UniProtKB/TrEMBL annotation, chain A:
Protein name: Molybdenum transport system permease
InterPro entries, per database record: MetI-like (IPR000515), MetI-like_sf (IPR035906), ModB_ABC (IPR011867)
Entries under CDD domains matching the protein: TM_PBP2
Nucleus keyword on record: no
Keywords: Cell inner membrane, Cell membrane, Membrane, Molybdenum, Transmembrane, Transmembrane helix, Transport
PANTHER family documented for this protein: MOLYBDENUM TRANSPORT SYSTEM PERMEASE, MOLYBDENUM TRANSPORT SYSTEM PERMEASE PROTEIN MODB
NCBIfam families reported for this sequence: modB_ABC (TIGR02141)
Organism whose genome encodes this protein: Pseudomonas matsuisoli
Protein family: Belongs to the binding-protein-dependent transport system permease family. CysTW subfamily.
Residue ranges of domain ABC transmembrane type-1 in the record: 11-217
Segments crossing the lipid bilayer: 17-36, 48-68, 88-108, 194-217
This protein's GO CC annotations: plasma membrane
Pfam families: BPD_transp_1
Function: Part of the binding-protein-dependent transport system for molybdenum; probably responsible for the translocation of the substrate across the membrane.
From TrEMBL, chain B:
Ligand binding (molybdate): 58, 166
Iron found in the keyword field: no
Family, similarity comment: Belongs to the bacterial solute-binding protein ModA family.
Official protein name in the record: Molybdate-binding periplasmic protein ModA
Protein keywords: Metal-binding, Molybdenum, Signal, Tungsten
Organism superkingdom: Bacteria
GO MF term (any one): tungstate binding
The encoding gene: modA
Subunit (UniProt): The complex is composed of two ATP-binding proteins (ModC), two transmembrane proteins (ModB) and a solute-binding protein (ModA).
UniProtKB/TrEMBL annotation, chain C:
Residue span(s) of domain Mop: 293-358
Organism: Pseudomonas matsuisoli
PANTHER family per record: ABC TRANSPORTER I FAMILY MEMBER 10, MOLYBDENUM IMPORT ATP-BINDING PROTEIN MODC 2
One Gene Ontology MF term: molybdate ion transmembrane transporter activity
Protein's name according to its UniProt entry: Molybdenum import ATP-binding protein ModC
Coiled-coil residue windows: none
GO cellular component: membrane
Highest taxon above the source species: Bacteria
Length: 225, 250, 358
């Protein structure tokens, strides 16, 4: 196998990025999805649209705005600098921020669908059985939405692994910090190192296939028995 | 009027417009974007042909050409890619020539941040130095050669951020995310002077010459429009425009 | 005492009720679908956050919109039995039962788990998942789950509506045991007359979001001025006690209020046992003289009280007084005129059939 240590470093970095991103997305995506699923507010439409924006925007657009916003003249950059965190571009933290935005709809939407499917009735049953709304969320909603959480985690993780445009725009291609597999593949192709490109690209195809297979398998097992 | 296809992502979308025999489809290395746009009106006026330019990375154009992309002329950012195409029999025999020699500059959009000798590199007060990917971009290679000559490779290792190509390396600097970077002089040079900020013109003995070669591709060997464009590049009128963007000629 | 005043407006429907209900026994909320029964029950449970009004249950104030008081549903000591049980699909029967129970302070648990499980006959179901239960079993689990929160008010929303006749008969005895064995006031939503007469002590008639009558069940059923009396199903409920059994003919004697006795074909029951008997208006015929040579078993003297119209112009509903107990007879308008029936006339009522309820 012609893969170099740089390739393996890129694979490791990619897995780290996808794991951290997925965990953060589950934490912030769950309340967003819950709110979207339950609210009757006028803001539901606009918020839903903002969450879905990364689905339709080219990653380069997201990456470009992130680069500008996180730069020294951007509001995010000035905010992070005022906190003493420095600036986010060319850092792992910056990639995480970009990936969270980029993969947000892939986590929020499956969760929202799962919450929608639960409907109000189990919540009412829990309320008449003395469960407070928070209690009910953890003991009824979360277990019932488990298939949604599995789908959301898989999609969020896989989509982050497949991320390219955003990383390209804000990453700076730094080994072991921001050089992920998709960028590494791009570099190999650019440098005409087709054998390595094939190994990595082929690996991505196999990975994506296995992930989707697992997803469909998990969807078949969603009934309670 | 020039039909511009901005960025390589639009190259394929432009294909339907190529049916006209008078259109000439040219793949242009991104660092040569501005000069081609300046050259196009003169060429179209002189010949009546229409120039359809796709801008992108040289390595990517190579992969596309190898896989049948219907370009007639290829203006590369280096001389090795055209040479490789030549040895693989992908070009019209004898059509390869150097259309421009790129010059490297250390640049910052902030006035006076970069001094005329490049000592700012040794002072090492910045967080990020942007360069193009040295593995794939000739300006990136030139940048690492320069740092090597200055003996700064080790010291600055942790501060270097790489753009995929020279355009992105420039973007990192212009957006302020990197304080300074090695860019193509052509990106910051117009009408004989630096347009914004401050730059150090890296002496040409610090890096291998960045020869940018052009070729007529195999499929267009007998194409009059392709030949007309290549011939136009060699005219004194074209040379003047190319030089005004900070390139030199042989 | 339950005082419930509610207003809740929707696009095409609004609920507006002012009710005083007894603080013990079974109160049926009866009416056609869409009459607001379930909405009223949900208001009492606190599941309709938009409702306006006041609610006081045995001295405790749960809602008072004027002062902004709204006790959220999980803080109201109620049990709620949903129409289709609404069990948690991800929990076994045992865990469904435990869900509410463990959220009630141990000192406030008045109903033992074993007792509820035994009462509803679900011991053998404890380890099953809800989707492996029949409709009747689910409903019994739902009732036990609600009971195990030791509610001070049990709300039941058509607990039998989704079940076929056989399942209904399977559960009704359990509900009667609840009524007899546990001292919990129950609000019972139903649109089935047989359930109401069998279970309810108090009856609230609902129509188009209004409570049009509220009173003791047998009295309310005997009223001829309510839509209840219009239908083929009109009838009365008579409470009596077993006085004897004729073993030779298999006939049970049941006496009600003032010494009148009804006989019906039924296996023996304990002397003195209280029973509810339903007599439907269409099963009662009238004659001016005491009929002789009739196969009808129960022929009793009665006095005509009122005559009312029914849903069929050819029929009239006659309310009778049998020594203080009301009886309804649905007869043709033709017969009414032939007999010349009017208020205070003495007649003989022939009761063709009576139904023993539990």
């Amino acid at each position: 196998m012609p893969l170099t240590s740089a390739d393996f470093a890129a694979i490791r970095l990619t897995l780290e990025l996808a794991t951290v991103t997925t965990l953060i997305l589950l934490v912030i995506g769950t309340p967003i999805a819950w709110w979207l699923s339950r609210t009757q507010s006028w803001f539901k439409g606009p918020v839903g649209a903002i969450v879905a924006l990364p689905l339709v925007l080219p990653p380069t657009v997201i990456g470009f705005y992130l680069l500008v916003a996180m730069g020294p003249n951007g509001f995010v950059g000035q905010f992070t600098e005022s906190l003493g965190l420095g600036r986010l571009p060319f850092s792992f933290a910056g990639l995480v921020v970009g990936s969270v935005i980029y993969s947000l709809p892939f986590v929020v939407q499956p969760l929202q669908n799962a919450f929608d499917a639960i409907g109000p009735r189990p919540l009412e049953a829990a309320a008449t059985l003395r469960a407070s709304p928070l209690d009910c969320f953890f003991t009824v909603v979360l277990p019932l939405a488990k298939p949604g959480f599995i789908t959301a985690s898989i999609l969020g993780f896989a989509h982050t692994v497949g991320e390219f445009g955003v990383v390209l725009m804000i990453g700076g291609n730094i080994p072991e910090k921001t050089r992920v597999v998709s960028v590494q593949i791009f570099d190999h192709v650019e440098a005409m190192e087709y054998a390595q490109a094939h190994w990595l690209a082929g690996g991505m195809v196999v990975f994506s296939f296995v992930v989707l297979l697992a997803l469909y398998a998990s969807r078949r097992r969603t009934t309670w028995s | 009027m020039i039909k511009k296809a901005l960025g390589f992502t639009f190259a394929l979308a432009a294909l339907p417009f190529m049916a006209n025999a008078d259109d000439i489809q040219v793949a242009v290395a991104s660092n040569f974007t501005a000069p081609v746009q300046a050259l196009a009106p003169g060429f179209e006026k002189a010949t009546g042909h229409t120039l359809v330019a796709s801008f992108g990375a040289t390595g990517q154009f190579y992969a596309q050409i190898k896989n049948g992309a219907p370009f007639q002329v290829f203006l590369a950012a280096d001389d090795s890619t055209p040479a490789k195409l030549e040895s693989e029999g992908e070009i019209a025999p004898g059509s390869r020539f150097t259309y421009a020699i790129g010059k490297l500059a250390l640049w910052s959009p902030k006035d006076d941040y970069v001094d005329e000798k490049g000592d700012v590199l040794k002072q090492n007060t910045f967080a990020h130095l942007s360069i193009a990917n040295p593995k794939t971009a000739p300006y990136g290679l030139a940048a690492t050669q320069t740092l090597e000559k200055l003996g700064l490779t080790e010291m600055l290792k942790g501060k270097i951020v790489e753009g995929t190509n020279i355009t992105q390396a420039f973007q990192f600097v212009s957006s302020g995310n990197a304080e300074l970077g090695f860019v193509a002089l052509s990106q910051i040079f117009k009408d004989g002077q630096v347009t914004e900020g401050a730059a150090w013109m890296v002496p040409e003995d610090m890096y291998d010459p960045i020869r940018q070669d052009a070729v007529i591709l195999k499929g267009a060997a007998n194409d009059a429009a392709a030949k007309a464009f290549v011939d136009y590049l060699k005219t004194p009128e074209a040379a003047k425009i190319i030089e005004s963007f900070g390139y030199t000629l042989e | 005492m339950i005082e419930a005043n509610f207003f809740l407006g929707w696009d095409a429907f609004d609920l507006a009720v002012e009710l005083r209900l007894p603080g013990s026994g079974v109160t049926a909320l009866f009416g056609p679908s869409g009459s607001g029964k379930t909405t009223l029950l949900r208001c009492i449970a606190g599941l309709e956050a938009r409702s306006q009004g006041q609610l006081t249950v045995n001295g405790e104030r749960w809602q008072d919109s004027a002062s902004g008081l709204f006790v959220p549903p999980h803080k109201r000591p109620i049990g709620y039995v949903f129409q289709d049980a609404n069990l948690f699909p991800h929990l076994t029967v045992a865990k469904n039962l435990a869900y509410g129970q463990k959220r009630v302070d141990a000192r406030e648990r008045r109903i033992a788990q074993d007792h509820a499980i035994e009462l509803l006959g679900i011991t053998h179901l404890l380890e099953r998942m809800p989707n492996r239960l029949s409709g009747g079993e689910r409903q019994r689990v739902g009732i036990a789950r609600a009971l195990l929160t030791s509610p001070r008010l049990l709300l039941m929303d058509e607990p039998l509506a989704a079940l076929d006749y056989k399942r209904k008969m399977e559960i009704l005895p359990y509900l009667e045991r609840l009524h007899d064995e546990l001292d919990i006031p129950i609000l019972y939503v139903s649109h089935a007359p047989d359930e109401v007469v069998r279970l309810a002590d108090h009856l609230v008639l609902m129509e188009s979001g209004r409570a049009i009558a509220s009173g003791e069940t047998s009295e309310t059923l005997a009223r001829t001025d309510l839509p209840l009396a219009l239908s083929e199903d009109a009838g009365v409920l008579i409470k009596g006690r077993v006085t004897g059994h004729d073993a030779a003919y298999g006939l049970l004697s049941v006496a009600f209020d003032h010494g009148q006795t009804l006989r019906l074909a039924h296996p023996p029951r304990a002397i003195g046992e209280p029973l509810r008997i339903r007599v439907q208006a269409r099963d009662v015929s009238l004659s001016l003289e005491r009929p002789t040579g009739s196969s009808v078993l129960n022929i009793i003297p009665a006095r005509v009280m009122t005559v009312a119209e029914t849903d069929n112009p050819a029929h009239r509903l006659v309310r009778l007084d049998v020594a203080g107990t009301a009886l309804l007879a649905r007869i043709t308008r033709y017969s009414l005129e032939q007999l010349g029936l009017c208020r205070d006339m003495q007649v003989w009522a022939q009761i063709k059939s009576v139904a023993l309820l539990g």
